[in-house]
Amino acid sequence: MAISSFSLYCFLSLWLGQALLLQASHHVYRNLQTSLVADAHNQVTEPYRTGYHFQPPKNWINDPNGPMIYKGIYHLFYQYNPKGVVWGNIVWAHSTSTDLVNWTPHDAAIYPSQPSDINGCWSGSATILPGGKPVILYTGINPQNQQVQNLAYPKNLSDPYLREWAKVPQNPLMAPTQANQINASSFRDPTTAWLGPDMIWRVIVGSKRNQRGFAILYRSKDFLNWVKAKHPLHSAKKTGMWECPDFYPVSVKGQNGLHTSENGPDVKHVLKASLDNTKREYYTIGTYNIHKDIYIPDKGSVESDAGLRYDYGKFYASKTFFDSSKNRRILWGWINESSSVEDDTKKGWSGIQAFPRKIWLDKSGKQLVQWPVAEIEKLREKEVKLPSSVLNGGSVHEVLGVTAAQADVDVTFEISDFKKAEVLDPSWTDPQLLCSQKGASVKGGLGPFGLLVLTSKGLKEYTAVFYRIFKGHNNKYVVLLCSDQSRSSLNQDNDKTTYGAFLKVDPLHEKLSLRSLIDHSIVESFAGQGKACITARVYPTLAIDVDAHLYAFNYGTEDVKITGSAWSLKTAKIN
């Protein structure tokens, strides 16, 4: 371990004066020109800009890149277009934080400056080498528009903000050739590397051949010279290009996160792929055989709609990292817009990051669980308690005392009588389709019941996050979670797709929890204590700022009990 780290950093130090250093002197957010509107009181506002989700002041962003913690400082790199609100001219923008809530921007960390990345600096990951020394592997686009993998390192390790980065002159370190038969247009997004017991580094890069998706495996003794393995870590047919793969260990004993190189009898592994064909992410849970360098998903764990997703709404190109300061694994994800390009141009920006989530293996061992990192609680203002009460069938109750456009709502529902549960038709296997057919306005037996968020007076606009309960085979009950955006805005140019997921809980013996983070144009919902998540982007025309309302509702015929709390959230400092 020490030899690998020493060799690399001796080399980097030797070349420090000669390597092609980043020459960015501009500030990523300089000369801001954002699109603003005037409200009824002649105050300048941006109705859809978020208050506590990460986004720069203007322009396009997408994938979170190389998140890490270094010397007590959290780093978020992300794909950024400094020249406009659509994808293009991609650089690695960079911000830092001490609490994952408030963020300070820095100059671009990585931008085109070598032949191996002259046409773009695409996604990648950070790896912390022995001795706590960070490096970044990322995809560059060369003059032939081939996708190749490059290495960057911090110029000054004593700077906790890592404000200057350099690139090794050997770049690219991994490239498609006729010999290795790699698809030059589908070879991107290297993961965080991990170190095996044989002291050899490993990393995977997403790819495809025809419509088979691949996690191509590379090995290196010194982090500079990489050799492609004869076989991939894993692959799957009919999945297309695997973008932004992520491979990491999870503990079978509790919620603590693990270092990426961890393995052993109490460890399972997760492999996530963002599928370019569908723009959906899927993850599998399985076993990593370090001796054969293969990953074997557990039975029934697949990369398709029959499998598992982090989030069943807007959520893509995600990336996790191990937070060594608090022994947890944290998940970042890109949330793109649901508005038109014309409206994005008016706003002056496009894309945000999901609020960071802690992620761990469920006690069943069959799925992951996610929850907003605890630091969000520092933004909470006075708690509004929802005392235990009955939501009668067909009722709507407003939650007062909360800034409904920027809030954290955590409620629990309890059902005592299941007689009126609808029978689940065996053909209802697609939860998104089922939620679209049985939206919030469609009355049922047990449900819909949940929350109406970003709601206008008179309910002309609302986003509904709710449950329905069905009676399945063998007298088991099936819980459906929906996020219905069909009435979220009077603006018909928005994508108002309804999302859905089946929740693996037993409502006979468990209460149904629902937590929603509401932030002007985004609603992140966590059901069953984080067993299922749905993120939605919405752009109300009436339910804006002080004109937004929050309701609990039950449009089913059977009564349900509700209890919980709601908090207004302060605005984070994201410069």
Secondary-structure map:
Layout lengths: L1 H14 L4 E2 L15 E2 L5 E2 L13 E12 L2 E9 L9 E7 L6 E7 L10 E9 L3 E9 L5 E8 L10 E3 L19 E2 L5 E2 L5 E9 L2 E9 L5 E3 L5 E3 L5 E10 L15 E9 L4 E10 L4 E4 L18 E8 L4 E8 L5 H7 L1 E2 L1 E2 L3 E5 L6 E5 L7 E12 L3 E4 L7 E9 L7 E2 L7 H7 L8 E10 L7 E9 L5 E8 L14 E5 L8 E8 L2 E6 L4 E6 L11 E6 L5 E10 L6
Parallel strand pairs: 4-24, 31-33
Antiparallel strand pairs: 1-11, 2-3, 4-5, 5-6, 6-7, 8-9, 9-10, 10-11, 12-14, 13-14, 14-15, 15-16, 15-17, 18-19, 19-20, 20-21, 22-23, 23-25, 23-26, 26-27, 28-40, 29-39, 30-36, 30-40, 32-33, 32-39, 33-34, 34-35, 36-37, 37-38
How would you characterize this protein structure?
By secondary structure, the chain is mainly β. The protein is built from three helices and 40 strands. The strands form eight sheets. Strands 29, 31, 32, 33, 34, 35 and 39 form a seven-stranded mixed sheet that branches. Strands 12, 13, 14, 15, 16 and 17 form a six-stranded antiparallel sheet that branches. A six-stranded antiparallel sheet has the order 28-40-30-36-37-38, with no helix packed on it. The longest helix is centred in the N-terminal third of the chain and has 14 residues, at 2-15. It starts with a helix and ends in a 6-residue tail after the last strand.
What is this entry, summarized?
With 575 residues, this protein is mainly beta. It is built from three helices and 40 strands.
Structural class: mainly beta
What is the straight-line distance between the termini? 39 Å
The low-confidence parts are 1-44
Provide mean pLDDT, rounded: 92
Q: Give me the number of helical elements.
A: 3
Biggest sheet details: 7 strands, mixed
Specify the overall morphology.
Answer: globular
Tell me the total number of β-strands.
Answer: 40
